[in-house]
Amino acid sequence: MTPFIKHSKLMLAVAVATAAFTGCKPKKAETVISGDAAQKVYVAPGKLDEVYLFASGGFSGQVAAYGIPSGRLLKVIPVFSQNPENGWGYTEETKAMLNTSHGFIPWDDAHHPQLSKTDGMDDGRWLFINGNNTPRIARINLATFKTEEILEVPNSGGNHSSPYCTENTEYVVAGTRFSVPIGNNTDVPITSYKENFRGALSFINVDQKEGNMNIAFQLLVPGVDYDLARSGKGVSHGWMFFSCYNSEQAHTLLEVNASQRDKDFIMAVNWKKAEEYVKQGKGKKMPATYYHNKYDEKTHSAKSTVEKEVLTLDTRELKDIVYFIPCPKSPHGADVSPDGENIVASGKLAAVIPVFSFKKLTDAIAKKTFDGEFDNVSVVKYEAALAGEVQKPGLGPLHTEFDDKGYAYTSMFVSSEIVKWKVDTREVVDRVPTYYSIGHLCVVGGDNKKPYGKYVIALNKITKDRYLPTGPELTQSAQLFDISGEKMNLLLDFPTIGEPHYAQACPAEVIMKNQKKIFELSKNEHPYAAKNEQETKVVRNGKRVDVWMTAIRSHLAPDNIEGIKQGDEVYFHVTNLEQDWDVPHGFAIKGAENTELLIMPGETQTIKWTPKSTGVFPFYCTDFCSALHQEMQGYARVSAANSTVALKYGVGDTAPKDQVAQK
Ligand code: K7E
Ligand code: CUA
């Protein structure tokens, strides 16, 4: 969403429009903070927050977990970006997670966290998030807060309308933002957009036990931009809704060229129908190379598999899978009400918010109340699918979520506010300023069949004058509002990591009940695990030296190693022998080129070290684990490539003793 604020032409149009809505201008913050706000966000020391908030890190490529109402940062979960804090993407075990058909890609732009669902409710099993730039979907296990799987999405460019779960997480759905040339010949002129460019919507099957993802099928759809999506639920279970812009099919200067038509589209996808066609064998296998990376909790290691084909269904041939509904002016969000009946479409440049009725939509499809076709897809008549419009909502509607009392909350980017309206009458009942330029918003359980409500969190783009300055870039920020009463009340500003495009929140209990406290050492199947100190060893194989090391309060074993030579590749495989909650150990050695390790109880992790000079190199534990943490240290001696120093190692009595004798 970032780009459009920069473009002067648009800003001019927007400024003119803003003048007509002076009522939306943010008031001074002081005037809107109510007296008991502090009390409502105060979580006393030792007390726990009520809600987990999972926010995307945007260009940081990570996810962060916060406690609500305090806004306290609980954890940064590394996903698409390497993270030296805990070795993610640097250790031998985790490197494979970042493999793609474009090579090792250690970053991405992550936008939309999505909690897994059971019967339309957040179930606390997994959190999915999209990598936009090099199209990927990641799955985080919420028992361990670790990324367990990353699946690349082929035929996609800018994986933005992604990832959205169906009612029971039958699928995680990932739509492409950019349409791109697909098929055997992709080396085509950019000007041939209309002939050669197509969109792909991927339906990724999720194994209900382990969570493993596989692309069940891809729908090949008209070449436009697919921006956001939501799955149907309740009455609309079996359908997905995508917002589409650039129905002009422009390939340059979209700012102007993709804002020509009065209306773009919402695409309604009947995925149950698509499933039927797959069963009937109507899918076509298409060659496509993409990586599938999985982290195994038993071996504590990731493996990459290269997939070679994908099953596709072409909507030009199978015409009753998808339908277009006209939607005013560059739609961004497409959101579905808790009962599944209302589809709210937010056009960034539109003056109203259209709300479509699922019942009217399906009636119109049955009666073929169409307004012709767009690229072989039937276009349902706007009025035929429309439940009604929210009038004068504000400027720049982007995203909508729902509470437990029949209200919808829409973010207004241009007028910087949240607008509350009644779902059944579409009447605006309240508005509150945000500071500033709100993008997404998040109601607790706001996309569930039964939202939890109580809070809405604004995810803002600009924070000028809200925080102490930190150079040219100010902190990114979220704002917490109380929505339990008639009026929305601002409670708190809190900084976030990266750009918090979107977030999902659920009651703490949903996540807490599944928490894993340790990895069982007896179940550790890492090939280099040392499950006790007797199993520690150092083994040379040509120029490769493997160190089976253990960590326990408060020593590493072995802690003296000799016989390493210049030019060797040394692998430290460190197993944390602890079986207590929250007792990680760290490992670092002087001159390590990549990272440290942070090893959870019962886990084994490995760093590769290639010493560049001779000498004695200290290593130590990097996590303050006990009163004698600072004693948790050792030495590795590195000799010249042609030296005759024998390989020796140990701890205490077994440590190498004749250190002086050899040269
Ligand atoms: Cu920032 Cu969902 Cu990428 Cu809207 S997106 S704001
Ligand atoms: Cu182990 Cu410090």
Give your account of this protein's structure.
By secondary structure, the protein is mainly beta. The chain has 9 helices and 46 strands. The chain has a domain of 134 residues: Cupredoxins -  blue copper proteins (Immunoglobulin-like). It is 8% helix and 43% strand. Strands 6, 7, 8, 9, 10, 11, 12, 13, 14, 18 and 19 form an 11-stranded mixed β-sheet that branches. Its EC number is 1.7.2.4. One of its GO terms (molecular function) is copper ion binding. It is found in: Cell envelope.
The molecules bound to the chains, other than polymers, are: sulfanyl-(tricuprio-$l^{4}-sulfanyl)copper, dinuclear copper ion
What portion of the residues fall into strands of 2 or more residues? 35-45%
**Total of DSSP H or I helical runs spanning 4+ residues:** 9
CATH topology of the domain at 529-662: Immunoglobulin-like
Poorly predicted runs of 5 or more residues: 1-27, 659-663
Cα radius of gyration in angstroms: 27 Å
Assembly status:
single chain
Total number of beta strands? 46
Calculate the terminal CA-CA distance, rounded to whole Å. 63 Å
CATH superfamily of the domain at 529-662: Cupredoxins -  blue copper proteins
Please name the defining characteristics of this protein.
mainly beta; Immunoglobulin-like; eleven-stranded mixed β-sheet; globular; disordered N terminus; binds sulfanyl-(tricuprio-$l^{4}-sulfanyl)copper; binds dinuclear copper ion; signal; Cupredoxin; metal-binding; EC 1.7.2.4; nitrous-oxide reductase activity
